[in-house]
Design a protein that fits this description.
single chain; 210 residues; alpha+beta; 13-stranded antiparallel sheet; two-stranded antiparallel sheet; 18% helix
């Protein structure tokens, strides 16, 4: 990104459905927790422990989302997906661009929403030319120690709508990991630990732990 990084947010543990989102100082800015009852629902909370968004998982239809006082509605009605072709290693692949609006009606676009791609967020301010946020996947060395945690890099522009950026990223990443087909990605998801420290209750792994 050409714009300076204004904030580095870490997803701990690396699970878009059960984690704390903390800044460089270790301050907890958001939490995400998934409950399995009659329905499976993922809740995103802010630093004041207020629910700012919820996602109801559905097997056949699109997940149902509530964002602030908007909803419930189909996730596709909030995050609009378009299929974009791209080439890698001279092979044609398909990638989803995902657009949405903030409360002021300003438009944003997540690019790279596909296996093996790096997700980046763009805004319409400059015609979607320069990213204002970028996700860096976690990296482990051969001993499986964590070299780099799952990280969201945000510019000052992205900080203006931080909760919306975090929420849209979490819900997209949940869908992307659910659709991952490689055995390595599946193993990484299944290895994600429980989030009992933040929720006060054990999290039962289901649907691959995400």
């Amino acid at each position: 990104m050409s714009a300076p990084i204004a904030a580095t947010l870490v997803l701990s543990p690396d699970n878009p459905c059960n984690a704390a989102i903390v800044d460089e100082l270790g301050q907890q800015l958001n939490t995400v927790h998934t409950e399995h009852d009659k329905a499976t629902i993922t809740h995103v909370k802010n630093a004041e422990d207020e629910v700012i968004a919820s996602l109801e998982w559905r097997d056949v239809l699109s997940d149902k989302v509530t964002v602030g006082n908007k909803g419930p509605m189909s996730l596709r009605d909030w995050l609009h997906t378009s299929i974009v072709p791209f080439y890698r290693s001279d092979l044609l692949h398909l990638c989803s661009d995902v657009t949405f609006q903030d409360n002021s009606g300003r438009k944003y676009k997540w690019r790279g929403n596909a296996p093996g791609r790096a997700m980046e967020l763009f805004s319409e301010d400059d015609g979607f030319k320069e990213p204002i946020a970028r996700f860096l996947k976690s990296i482990r060395n051969r001993g499986r120690d964590l070299d780099r945690p799952a990280t969201l890099l945000l510019t000052t522009r992205a900080l203006e709508v931080r909760d919306t950026v975090v929420t849209s990223f979490l819900f997209l990443e949940k869908g992307r990991r659910t659709n991952e087909t490689t055995s390595q990605n599946t193993a990484d998801v299944l290895a994600t630990p429980a989030l009992s420290a933040l929720t006060g209750s054990d999290y039962n792994v289901r649907n691959g732990g995400i």
